Amino acid sequence: MQSLSVTLAFLSAFSSNAFVPHLTSPTSSSPFGVKSVDSGTALNVAAPQLTKFDRLKRDYKGPKSTVDTSGIDFTYEAFEEAVAATTYSFNRNDVIKGTVVQYDNGGALVDIGAKASAFLPLAEAGLVTENANEKTNIEDMVELDVEQDFQIISEEDENGQLMVSIRRIQYRQAWERIVKLQEEDDVFEAEVVAVNRGGAIALVEGLRAFLPGSHLTGALPDDDLIGVTLPLKFLEVNQEANKLVVSNRRAVVEKQMKDLSRGDVVSGVIKALKPYGAFVEVGGMSGLLHISQISYDRIDDLEAVFEPGAKVKCMIIDHDKVNGRIALSTKTLEPEPGDMLKDASRVFEMADETAAKYHERMEAERKAREEAAKDIVMGLGDGLEVSDPLADVTDSLESVLDGDGKKE
């Protein structure tokens, strides 16, 4: 009985101490050395996520300086509250004002008035430069402390930073200028920056345009063409497909056609022979020398007169400025009929002199035709008796009106 009382007393003491928490420590020891967890700290509350700046500040081990803020009329806490209370509205594709403040990590930091500076990558700093084959630095693309437009191209990252672009703004502006150039259909100049098997690549308002080799005049699409500025005109403009095709030949033809007129003597090169005539290249234009316009004498074998690559002189007898086509003649340059078959070199040597005589003869024939037409008209007039339909009317306007009034 006495041993039972001792056992109950021991169990009572164990139960009272094992589950009573310590007042000053979150853990307490049981009689067996087991620690119990304070109920107030049993549930761990998740800590707020730190920003990159806060993590750097937390991990900083260097010397710390004390700043005297007694003379400042605001505190850091007030500044943080003011920043938190400020409303920012930056959306993707918005165009905003900004200033490049620093070159960083191959790009640039841009102050756009947000919590954090925006980042401008090198690839978004502008359109293709004139010398596209050389590597460009960000310092060559944008200037510091110069305000300009930027387009937002991303959402904020974990540090509140946005990504911006200048290239996309310039891209839209370039297409607007190109569409205007196409509407005006004017000749413009552009620099060749690359060549390939099919032709060349030229920069038009900062955009790459394809120049087919068949539309090059007096040049081949090789490395010697890179860096050369050429007159061009548009062949195709398709903004949706991002496609630009240009022509050097069309620009050259249009420029030369303005200076050409019927009766001009031009030099050219035989490019091809056909049963109906020869095609002659004149300053980048293709002209047809029809077999009937080669000589006053009949031609049975055209290859006996010309061969491809031969240089000739011709007179322009007709032209189509819209399509860049011209009709040529050597017959009009013959001093004597048949000279093209007998001595073509003599015809070319005397081309300018013969052409002047031809124009004088044509002008005399024109005047003769006009005089003949005038004589015919005058002769018809002399044979006609023209009577005046009012010759027999003797009443004046006043008498007619008075007579009408009396009748009333």
TrEMBL record:
Q: What does this protein do?
A: Associates with the EF-Tu.GDP complex and induces the exchange of GDP to GTP. It remains bound to the aminoacyl-tRNA.EF-Tu.GTP complex up to the GTP hydrolysis stage on the ribosome.
The record, for Gene3D superfamilies, names: Nucleic acid-binding proteins (2.40.50.140)
Please report the stretch or stretches of sequence annotated as the S1 motif domain: 93-167, 185-249, 263-331
- The lineage's top-level taxon is Eukaryota
Record organism: Triparma strigata
Q: What name does this protein carry?
A: S1 motif domain-containing protein
Asked if the record carries the keyword Ribonucleoprotein, the reply is: yes
One Gene Ontology molecular-function label: mRNA binding
Cellular component GO terms, alphabetically?
cytoplasm; ribonucleoprotein complex; ribosome
Which PANTHER family does this chain map to? 30S RIBOSOMAL PROTEIN S1 (PTHR10724), SMALL RIBOSOMAL SUBUNIT PROTEIN BS1C (PTHR10724:SF7)
| Matching Pfam families | S1 (PF00575)
Lineage, uppermost ranks: Eukaryota, Sar, Stramenopiles, Ochrophyta, Bolidophyceae
Q: Which CDD domains match?
A: S1_RPS1_repeat_ec2_hs2
